[in-house]
């Protein structure tokens, strides 16, 4: 199974994100926006995993408090000149600590640490999603248009939620894109 650990996004915030994306779509061409049903904040990508029961058991040992997460602002990874990902900002000082706790729990199973976490919510991707060398090349026209629109407008705000759990998801790949299936939720302390 292809697995990752993430925060689920509240319905109201998903709605605001989807409305923002809908406002952009007619203004740009050739940008591959992700579906609303895939909005999440990745804490750790595990890849293909056979020991699913062991992963679940280790995730049950993670202890962290619930925390506030604000969603606002948008940007590009690695940057607007060579965009691979168009993202919405995730503002929560507790996210790196939770990601680190998850890293530590799963290290016992041989999963390498993530390193520095850059919390974000992916809104669109440029290309297949596979890594490629960073070159000084022009972004595709749609991403160039998107960059101009973002630079000329105010930073959008999508709302704040309380993260009360983190989720183990299965990612199923298909020609129409990935679909995510919740396997188990792990409660954060109140």
Question: Which superfamily, in CATH terms, is the homologous superfamily?
Answer: Cyclic phosphodiesterase
Shape: globular
**Estimated radius of gyration:** 17 Å
Residue fraction in strands: 25-35%
User: Could you say what the CATH topology is called?
Assistant: Cyclic Phosphodiesterase, Chain: A
Q: Oligomer, anyone?
A: single chain
**Helix amount:** 10-25%
User: Within the largest sheet, what's the order of strands?
Assistant: 2-6-5-4-7
Please tell me the total number of domains.
Answer: 1
Question: By helix and strand content, what is the structural category?
Answer: alpha+beta
Question: Would you write up a description of this structure?
Answer:
- The protein is an alpha+beta fold.
- The chain has one domain (2-130, 137-187): Cyclic phosphodiesterase (Cyclic Phosphodiesterase, Chain: A, Alpha-Beta Complex).
- The protein has four helices and nine strands; from the N terminus they run βαββαββαβαβββ.
- It has helices at 11-24, 52-59, 95-107, 141-152; strands spanning 2-8, 32-33, 40-48, 67-77, 85-91, 120-125, 157-163, 165-172, 179-187.
- A five-stranded antiparallel β-sheet has the order 2-6-5-4-7, with helices on one face. Strands 3-1-8-9 form a four-stranded antiparallel β-sheet, covered by helices on one side.
- A hairpin with a 6-residue loop joins β8 and β9.
- It is globular.
């Amino acid at each position: 199974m292809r697995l990752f650990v993430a925060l689920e996004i509240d319905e109201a915030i998903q709605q605001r994100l989807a409305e923002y994306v809908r406002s952009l779509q007619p203004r740009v061409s050739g940008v591959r926006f992700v579906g609303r049903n895939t909005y999440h904040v990745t804490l750790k990508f595990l890849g293909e995993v056979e020991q699913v029961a062991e992963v679940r058991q280790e995730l049950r040992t993670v202890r962290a408090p619930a925390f506030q997460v604000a969603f606002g602002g948008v940007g590009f990874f690695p940057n607007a000149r060579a965009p691979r990902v168009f993202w919405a900002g995730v503002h929560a000082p507790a996210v790196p600590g939770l990601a680190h706790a998850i890293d530590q729990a799963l290290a016992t199973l041989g999963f390498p640490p993530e390193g520095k976490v850059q919390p974000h919510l992916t809104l669109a991707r440029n290309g297949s999603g596979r890594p490629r060398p960073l070159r000084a090349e022009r972004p595709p026209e749609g991403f160039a248009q998107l960059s101009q629109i973002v630079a000329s407008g105010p930073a959008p705000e999508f709302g704040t939620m309380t993260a009360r759990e983190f989720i183990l998801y299965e990612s199923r790949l298909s020609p129409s894109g990935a679909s995510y299936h919740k396997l188990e939720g792990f409660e954060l302390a109140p």
